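Example record

One chain of 337 residues, shown exactly as stored in the release files.
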Amino acid sequence: MHRLIRAVILILAIGKCTLSFSNNKSESKSCKDETPVVQAEQTFEVNVEHDIVYAKGLSHSSINSSDATVMPLKLDVYTPDNELENRPVFLFIHGGGFAGGTKQQGRIIEWANYYTSRGWVFISADYRLKRHKGTVPIEWLDFAEKLPKAAKVGPFLAIYPAIRDAKAALRWVVANADVYNINTDYITVGGGSAGAITAITMGISNPEDFRDELTFEQDPSLTTTNIDQSYQIKIIVDLWGSKAALDAMEKIFSHQRFDRNDPALFIAHGTEDPTVPFINAKELKQMYESTGAPFVYYPLEGKGHGAWGAMLDNKRLEELAFDFIVEQQKLKVIRDN
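Predicted structure tokens for this chain:
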């Protein structure tokens, strides 16, 4: 019965954005002019398309060597089984220290089903890792060579192509918005660990960052990345990440990108994290406090790295993030009561 009620409300919501009146004349109006409607509870079946190629990237035997090969970059698209034409989107980036991980990690699939069953289009993207030795700007390489061995130069060099790829994935989303009935005014990006570092950098940096530092001659694969598409991220979901890539960008290119117009930021981080120390969450909080951009801050007391199952106020992290996204984007939520 509850699902039937929600379905009826959804039909009314759909109908509400198909017709408007002006000066006694009927005019068609796109559903995407309206605020998307999502569900408070699991409602829709989830459809999945695996391994869609969103772009291509160069891979080398050694960094910036001349023997580059072109590799496909892939993502999975989760869509709700409904006829709504006005859906928010959540692009999620996996972790793994820029050396491992996959878009099909179990916890990501859990988040995909949570959000898709409530009305989001959820997208999980792979990207080039340390072993792929993606092309990097000479300035990035020079900076890496000055780092102490303890800084793990190899993973550091993987950061640039990873973020470059994630931005290409988001441009693919925008280019294919009509295919999946996505409203690109409601974009959320998120990730865990290295994926959170990537998501934070995507949201804070300018569109040209991690894109224009290399020319088409240096990296011809850029032509496959929907370079003509633009986007505006509204929400960042940071699960035990940091602003490390933005700090590196500031040191290398003298770009400081934080300001009061940054996307709203959800921060969740274990206070006993040995991998990405908790101080990184504090630094992000302090930066957002200084700019005045909106954020929420959840120290996960006693938790280490990758605290997916953490509970606060009897809510899991995906539920807390749901509340934050809905509040910040002012989404319409259909509830049973």
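Notes: The helical segments are 2-16, 106-116, 138-145, 153-175, 194-204, 244-253, 279-291, 317-329.
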